[in-house]
Design goal:
With 511 residues, this protein is mainly α. It has 21 helices and no strands. The longest helix is centred in the last third of the chain and has 38 residues. It is globular, with a radius of gyration of 35 Å.
Length: 511
């Protein structure tokens, strides 16, 4: 079929007047086309042009040929055979068309489109889990070290968390492939199966519950203040608004399936980015001096050391998403490539959002934009979507942990698969953080984020992935392999984070 198409294309070119005169002259010498010729019949019966070229006539005279026009009978409209046309078409027939298959355009089938959609959906779930109310305390922390140094800290901690997330994804996939259970649903399950220690599993589960409960309590508290400040005319109490938000979150968590909660988080992320764009663009324009803002020194009077000690725990805790990695691998059918792409993309988007947010806030553009009616509405929408996305993801992670505890304590079925969280699991996930918010009068809980970023996060997402990965990689009867570069980076970072916080706290006590 491709050969015939090439021949028809070449034959169609013979409609030019100059080429037709060459055909007219050669026909007098060679006679009509024979039926056994290699030229396809589609070319033999192409209609020639009736126009003559003076240039061709001149070349014919120089060759000593008679300038005699070729007469075609009224009933014969075939193109006469020429040596030039026959030789050219014969050479085209001998062209190797096997190389043409390399230039076929790739076609995305329904399965590939579905796979790409699932990866993007999982990436947005990670972004929604990461971008939360903690971002509202970041400009002050980044301003202490300077925006340029703060941006470098964001990139470095992104790479640190990326290594941690990929190791945890490998652990989840290895446990899925090596056991009869369908899903390792939580960090407690990781420790129970991989480390084969009930005490280690309980300790790791408690650490996971602590860090996610702190994030959820911080989000519920800010939700109460956000609604009360956005609607001042209603005279709403932040504490009551926070209690109502926690109730709505709990009802949605046990009535929706895991995929339903994922869709809610994804919608929140899309609203977050759209409102952030409408808020960020005017804010960037209103920044008084971009270069001065970028290169400004830190505002902490103690210098870079104390400023970094205060900023690193908040930045590290704000970039935390590893609690949702087991759910991500489950949603992507434990595919390594898809999970890696989703983790890398979903965790990078919050870095870009945070840096742009700090730049607009430190440059004064955010204050100028939020004073207008449209800017204030965009800021409120952005804040609400950030709170909803992060709180839904934290609730899912907490419910996964409590489901594991409930199933191990009251059920003999160790490999149960559930697509919807139970009411007891959701209640235990939401009630303690909500109780802390009500007990503190919906006060600022930034200290909880600082504590998690300084101590709990380096252990849970720094040292623990190394121990789990080394355990599942070790074969029966073999010693553990030496740590690779990724494990070395995670271990050094975790020890450094904890050590600098201890030194900072001791110096504060002495002073």
């Amino acid at each position: 079929m491709m050969k015939k198409s090439g021949l028809l294309l070449l034959a169609s070119c013979t409609t030019s007047s100059a080429f037709q005169q060459v055909l007219t002259f050669n026909c007098l010498q060679n006679g009509p086309i024979r039926s056994n010729s290699k030229i396809p019949r589609a070319v033999q019966y192409m209609q020639p042009s009736s126009m003559e070229s003076d240039d061709v006539k001149g070349r014919s005279r120089r060759l000593g040929k008679v300038d005699t026009p070729y007469k075609v009978s009224n009933g014969d409209k075939r193109v006469p055979r020429t040596e030039l046309l026959a030789a050219t078409l014969e050479s085209v027939e001998n062209v190797d068309t096997s190389l043409l298959g390399r230039f076929e355009m790739p076609v995305l089938g329904p399965k590939k489109v579905e796979a790409v959609t699932k990866v993007l959906s999982a990436s947005l779930l990670i972004t929604g889990n990461t971008v939360g109310s903690s971002m509202f305390v970041l400009p002050e922390a980044v301003g202490g070290v300077g925006l340029l140094n703060g941006s470098a800290l964001f990139i470095g901690l992104y790479l640190y968390n990326l290594i941690s997330g990929l190791l945890l994804a490998d652990v989840a996939i290895e446990l899925h492939e090596s056991s009869d259970c369908e899903v390792p649903s939580s960090f407690k399950d990781f420790a129970d199966v991989a480390m084969k220690s009930g005490a280690a599993g309980n300790a790791i589960g408690a650490a996971s519950l602590l860090i996610n409960s702190c994030f959820l309590a911080f989000g519920i508290s800010h939700a109460g203040h956000l609604v009360a400040n956005t609607l001042p005319g209603f005279g709403l109490e932040p504490t009551m608004v926070a209690a109502g938000f926690a109730t709505i979150l709990a009802v949605a968590s046990f009535t929706q399936t895991n995929h339903g909660l994922e869709k809610i988080a994804n919608v929140a992320v899309m609203v977050l980015f759209s409102s952030f764009a409408s808020l960020l663009l005017p804010s960037l324009v209103n920044v008084s001096d971009p270069m001065v803002t970028l290169l400004a020194p830190g505002t902490n009077p103690g210098g870079f050391g104390p400023a970094a000690a205060a900023a690193i725990p908040l930045i590290l805790s704000s970039l935390t998403y590893q609690n949702i990695v087991p759910s991500i691998t489950k949603l992507l059918d434990f595919d390594r490539t898809k999970s890696s792409v989703a983790i890398a993309l979903g965790s990078f988007l919050p870095v870009a959002v945070y840096i742009a947010w700090c730049f607009a806030a430190l440059g004064g553009g955010l204050d100028n934009s939020s004073t207008s009616g449209a800017g204030g509405a965009a800021l409120a929408t952005f804040s609400a979507s950030a709170l909803i996305g992060s709180c839904v993801a934290c609730t899912m992670s907490l419910a996964e942990e409590y489901e594991s505890i409930i199933s191990s304590a009251f059920s003999s079925e160790n490999c149960s698969v559930k697509d919807k969280f139970s009411i007891p699991a959701v209640t235990m996930a939401v009630a303690p953080p909500a109780a802390v918010v009500l007990a503190t009068g919906c006060s600022d809980l930034t200290c909880a984020l600082h504590f998690c970023g300084a101590f709990v996060t380096p252990f849970l997402y720094g040292l623990l992935p190394i121990m789990l990965f080394q355990t599942i990689s070790k074969k029966d009867g073999e010693t553990a392999s030496p740590p690779n570069l990724q494990s070395t980076i995670l271990a050094s970072g975790a020890v450094g984070f904890i050590g600098q916080e201890i030194i900072h706290d001791i110096s504060q006590i002495i002073a």
